[in-house]
């Protein structure tokens, strides 16, 4: 699975981190950072939830 984070779209809402904390983290900058750009398939449901919940469509999940 491949995760893309367009950080220039991020507004730091934190919902991605809440839903998939192994993959996303809101850093000291106040914006999301990718902890793992290629998580295993067991993370797909969480990553899809993060993608859907992002208010600015900054996250793309590709399988
Ligand atoms: S859900 Fe979207 S806007 Fe919110 S912190 Fe994550 S990437 Fe940024």
What key attributes describe this structure?
alpha+beta; 22% strand; two-stranded antiparallel sheet; two-stranded antiparallel ribbon; binds iron/sulfur cluster; 2 helices; Alpha-Beta Plaits; 63 residues; globular
Attached small molecules: iron/sulfur cluster
When the domains are counted, the total is 1
Widest sheet: strand order?
A: 1-4
Cα end-to-end separation = 4 Å
Count of helical stretches? 2
Strand content bin: 15-25%
CATH architecture field:
2-Layer Sandwich
Q: Quick one: biggest sheet?
A: 2 strands, antiparallel
Q: What best-fitting shape do the alpha-carbon axes yield?
A: globular
Q: What sequence of helices (H) and strands (E) makes up the elements?
A: EHEEHE
Name the helicity range: 10-25%
What do these coordinates show?
With 63 residues, this protein is of the alpha+beta class. Helix content is 24%, strand content 22%. It has a two-stranded antiparallel sheet. Strands 2-3 form a two-stranded antiparallel sheet. It starts with a strand and ends with a strand. The chain binds iron/sulfur cluster. Iron/sulfur cluster binds next to helix 1 and strand 2.
């Amino acid at each position: 699975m491949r995760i893309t984070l367009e950080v220039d779209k991020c507004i730091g809402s934190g919902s991605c981190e809440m839903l998939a904390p192994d993959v996303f983290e809101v850093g000291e900058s106040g914006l999301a950072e990718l902890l793992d750009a290629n998580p295993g398939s067991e993370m797909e449901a969480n990553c899809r939830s993060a993608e859907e919940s992002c208010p600015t469509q900054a996250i793309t999940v590709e399988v």
